[in-house]
Amino acid sequence: MGQGRTALVDRGWWALLKEDVACVLTRDPAARSLFEVWTIYPGVQAVALYRLAHALWTRGWRYGPRFLSFFARWVTNVDIHPGARIGHRFFIDHGACVVIGETAEIGDDVTLYHGVTLGGTTWNPGKRHPTLGDGVVVGAGAKILGPITVGARVRVAANSVVIDDVPEAATVVGIPGRVVIRKEARAPQGAIDLQHHLIPDPVGKAIACLLDRIAELETEVKLIKGLPPLRAAEDGACHACDDTCTQPTFSNRPGVSP
Fold it and tell me: How far apart are CA 109 and CA 144, in angstroms?
């Protein structure tokens, strides 16, 4: 997050914007040329205006940057407060109904889809919006609320609501969001994992385990009665599963493994 926080100090507006545009070609197969990205991608246009507004904001201007963000929202339907801090190669895919609050901090190589909100949960001044690490991907319609930290390379599933800190390289699913421990191979170091179809279903897994447990109890009852079991309980999906279904919250509680 160090680069993201000082992006406009170390790099000029034009250099940052060129990185924002170039990264679209690597993350969106629909993008066919730089000219297309420059001219008809509202997410790129919103970020360009944000970077200009943020440069003015850091120099002590207030109304001018807010007016630029208001104009950007009117044109692109993306609302980024000029006080937010955003790192390199930031991409808003589809650029619609995205809201980023004043004290939000976003690292490098972050991707947001449409409908994402990085919002606050208090009217008190100070840090009240989330901090996203490098390489985070936030799915469509997800809400990340409060002064929480989302670790590097985290994936937030579509329509999830995240209200607690998230450890690095985790996947978040549901309302409220729960960390799903992924044991299979993830994207290589430095690459961005956009494979949303591989996001686990913790509710479905929990139901499958419940059905297996019911079958196991039915088998035990039949054995007690001297009747042949319907099937071997050891064949259930839950016994073959080596993953953690869900966690109640992100916080580490006694007796709950992260």
Answer: 18
Count of Cβ atoms closer than 10 Å to residue 251 Cβ: 10
DSSP 40-64: H-HHHHHHHHHHHHHHHHHTT--HH
pTM: 0.71
Q: What is the pLDDT of residues 57-83, one digit of tens each?
A: 999 999 999 999 999 999 999 999 999
Torsion sign across C-alpha atoms 206, 212, 215, 221: negative
28 backbone φψ class: left, alpha, beta (φ>0; ψ -120 to 50): beta
CB 190 within 8 Å of CB 208: no
Within 10 A of 160 (CB to CB), how many other CB atoms are there?
A: 22
Q: What amino acid occupies position 243?
A: D
**What burial letters (b/e) apply to 6-41, b meaning 16+ CB within 10 Å?**
ebbeebeeeebbebbbebbeeebeebeeeeebeeeb
At 220, list the tokens: 């035990």
Angle at 171 between CA 168 and CA 174, to 5 degrees: 135
How many CB atoms are closer than 10 A to CB 242? 5
